TrEMBL record:
Site features described as Cleavage, chain residue numbers: 190-191
Natural source organism: Aphanothece sacrum FPU1
EC number(s) per entry: 2.3.1.35, 2.3.1.1
Protein keywords: Acyltransferase, Amino-acid biosynthesis, Arginine biosynthesis, Autocatalytic cleavage, Cytoplasm, Multifunctional enzyme, Transferase
NCBIfam families with a match to the protein in the record: ArgJ (TIGR00120), PRK05388.1 (NF003802)
GO cellular component terms, A-Z: cytoplasm
Annotated site residue numbers, Involved in the stabilization of negative charge on the oxyanion by the formation of the oxyanion hole: 117-118
Protein name: Arginine biosynthesis bifunctional protein ArgJ
CDD domains for this protein: OAT
Family: Belongs to the ArgJ family.
């Protein structure tokens, strides 16, 4: 039983936030490609970013901004050009983008955070951006969350959005979020792109700690293709407009409730990204228990979820438990193979490190039914792995690997 409920509104559900999205001419297709999220007041800002040594200009820009000033008023995101591996000119484009938006919003440029997604090596189309900024600002609204969610997508088939509400000090407190991601998903931080808003009052250090914890239990536990992006960014704003007392102690019940709701928002968005993996037909959830610690359990879960052999078997509706066992064994986590137990859905396939007889056709049908399920409801393939009697648990999410993944990515820039 959770202490929160899902509500409408997405990224603009929390008080004091506006959003919008538009087609600015950045994408050759003419699809929406520019998004903006704005807080009415200064908000505490936190971020988690890619650990790749090849980073987009927006990542370096945001890191520096958050180091200098852990607060923000707005997030500007362009789609179409990643502005990664673009050198000094790419960084100047990022700086100019912030200045243009600051002028239009009549705020300081250091109150703006940036994100980009698209083709690596391509700079932002600044002529189009310059023309679009005034119109973008003029269309900000409390109902603009869906437009923003659409404008940050690239190869995504669906938008990803969620909002949750709880009660703290008899006042409603809300967390909303949007994300994008479909390919190049194997985050070593957060995800392709995700933005979170919150109207709770929370201290700067605690908000960053909460976001990092949430990322480690959500975006850092998804994989589509094993590739980490140059642009991975998770940015969260908390503006205190719920008018509750400031939350400063992680051990307080208020902090625990907010942490749980923030993690739930991030997990929803993370699973949506994994389910929308390029060419995917189903979501895969790997649950690991019995490890010596949670870190080891999470590592094994993500290794299984990211195994090309496991992913291919699921696409082929082949209940090949051996591939699951092999992936668990190579994760770099110590356990006794004689304790290993593996289940696919309700089908027990291995016990005490030994294979068991099971109905292969029925197990194959289970995989077929998942592929025919509905988005994020009945389309989840569940793999359960127990390593022994340890207290460590972990979950990871991925998807199957289909022929279409190669089709989508073989000619991505041509």
């Amino acid at each position: 039983m959770t202490d929160w409920q899902e509500i409408e509104g997405g990224i603009t559900a929390p008080k004091g936030f506006l959003a919008t999205g538009m087609a600015a001419g950045l994408k050759p297709s003419g699809a929406p490609d520019l998004a903006l999220i704005v807080s009415d007041t200064e908000a505490i800002a936190a971020g988690v970013f890619t650990t790749s040594q090849v980073r987009a200009a927006c990542v370096d820009y945001c890191r520096q901004r958050l180091q200098d000033k852990a607060s923000s008023r707005a997030i500007l995101c362009n789609a179409g050009q990643a502005n990664a591996a673009t050198g000094e000119l790419g960084l100047q484009d990022a700086i100019e983008s912030a200045k243009l938006l600051a002028e239009a919003l009549n705020i300081d440029s250091d109150a703006i955070l940036l994100a980009s997604t698209g083709v690596i090596g391509q700079r932002i189309r600044m002529d189009a951006l310059r023309k679009a900024i005034p119109q973008l600002v003029n269309t900000l609204s409390e109902t603009g969350g869906q437009a923003a969610a659409k404008a940050i997508t690239t190869t995504d088939l669906v938008t990803k959005s969620i909002a949750l509400e709880t009660v703290i000090e008899d006042r409603p407190v809300r967390v909303g979020g949007i994300a994008k991601g479909s390919g190049m998903i194997h985050p070593n931080m957060a995800t392709m792109l995700a933005f979170v808003t919150c109207d709770a009052a929370v201290s700067t250090a605690l908000w960053q700690e909460m976001l990092t914890r949430a990322a480690n239990q959500s975006f850092n536990q998804i994989t589509v293709d094993g590739d980490t992006s140059t642009n991975d960014s998770l940015i969260a704003l908390a503006n205190g407009q719920s008018r509750t007392s400031a939350i400063t102690d992680m051990n307080s019940k208020e902090a625990q409730k907010l942490q749980g709701m923030l993690t739930a928002v991030c997990q929803h968005l993370a699973k949506a990204i994994a389910r929308d993996g390029e060419g995917a037909t189903c979501l895969v959830e790997v649950q690991v228990s019995g490890a010596s610690d949670d870190e080891g359990a999470r590592r094994i879960a993500k290794t299984i979820a990211g195994s090309s052999l496991v992913k291919s078997a699921i696409f082929g509706r082949d209940p090949n438990w051996g591939r699951i066992a092999a992936a668990a064994g190579r994760a770099g986590v110590s356990f006794h193979q004689e304790d290993l137990q593996i289940k696919l859905g309700d089908f027990l396939m291995m016990e005490n490190g030994q294979p068991l007889a099971f109905d292969r056709q029925a197990a194959s049908n289970y995989l077929k039914q998942a592929a025919a399920g509905t988005y994020l409801k009945e389309d989840t393939v569940l793999i359960s792995v127990c390593l022994g009697n340890g207290s460590g648990t972990g979950i990871a999410w991925g998807c199957d690997l289909s022929y279409d993944y190669v089709k989508i990515n073989a000619e991505y820039t041509t």
